[in-house]
Structures are given as structure tokens and as C-alpha cells.
Amino acid sequence: MTKNFLASAVAIVGLAMFTIPGEVRAQRAGIKRTLLQQHDLSVSGREMIQARIDFAPGTAFGKHTHPGEETIYVLEGVLEYEVAGKPPVTLKAGEVLFVPAGVAHSAKNVGSTEAKELATYTVEKGKPVLTLVK
């Protein structure tokens, strides 16, 4: 096999592990998730996943949880986050947010331009990275 083929195969497998089920993706028009990297950690059973999430103006990603911590860095635009038990917070480029493991939260682009965040997840390996909360 060629190096390009192997690299593509690894990227597809990694993205498949991070991708949200089809019916959920369909409900999230205007939001694009790009897997940047995924690595096992030195702590047994834990992994780090890093992704860029792009939000079209006015789009939101509803309440959800992760099986570990999420660290968010806003790259562009203005995003409003609601984290259970706390008042909503509006962040602009260069600002950060920490979401504890298992805590329900949501994000919305409240600006008039595209917004982007860098999300780093430190999660339990083998569990879905994201679970929607009803």
C-alpha cells in the first residue's frame, strides 16, 4: 500500500470514531467538525481528541455531554456557551472555557460571521465522544 492510501485510511477511521451519528448530523446543519488529532494518553483507558468546530452565523449545537473534560479555545467570532449550573457566558476569539466531564452544555454562534472553536477532549477511550441530552 502507498503512504497516501495508509494516511487516508487512518484519517477515515479516526473521523469515523469521532463522527456524530447521521441523524444527529442532519439536525446540525451549519456546523462542521474537523478532526485534527487523536492520541492515547499515558493514563490507561484515556485518550485526547482535538477538533475544530465551525459554526455558521446563528447556528447552535444543543445540550450534550462528553465522557471526560473539554477545553475550548475560541478561534474566531463570538460564541455563547451554556454550561449546566452556571450562567451563560459569551466568548470571543482568544478566550477559553473548561467543561467538566459529564456536564451538559451547549454552544451558539451569536455573531454575524462564522465562528470557530478549537475543542480538546480528554475522554474515556472507546466511549462515544458526544452524547446528546434531551
Description:
It is a single chain. The protein has 134 residues and is of the alpha+beta class. The protein has a single domain, classed as Jelly Rolls (Sandwich), CATH 2.60.120. Helices cover 16% and strands 49% of the residues. The protein is built from two helices and ten strands; from the N terminus they run H-H-E-E-E-E-E-E-E-E-E-E. It has helices spanning 3-18, 22-26; strands at 31-40, 46-55, 60-65, 68-76, 78-83, 89-92, 96-99, 105-109, 115-124, 131-132. Strands 1-2-9-4-7 form a five-stranded antiparallel sheet, with helices on one face. A five-stranded antiparallel sheet has the order 6-5-8-3-10, with no helix packed on it. Strand 5 and strand 6 form a beta hairpin. The longest helix is centred in the N-terminal third of the chain and has 16 residues, at 3-18. It is globular. Pfam families: Cupin_2. This is Cupin domain-containing protein. Residues 53-119 form the Cupin type-2 domain.
Give the helix tally.
2
Overall pLDDT metric = 85
Task: Please provide the count of β strands.
Answer: 10
Distance between the termini: 45 Å
CATH architecture designation:
Sandwich
Q: Sketch the major β-sheet.
A: 5 strands, antiparallel
Topology of this protein?
Blueprint: H1 3-18, H2 22-26, E1 31-40, E2 46-55, E3 60-65, E4 68-76, E5 78-83, E6 89-92, E7 96-99, E8 105-109, E9 115-124, E10 131-132
Antiparallel strand pairs: 1-2, 2-9, 3-8, 3-10, 4-7, 4-9, 5-6, 5-8
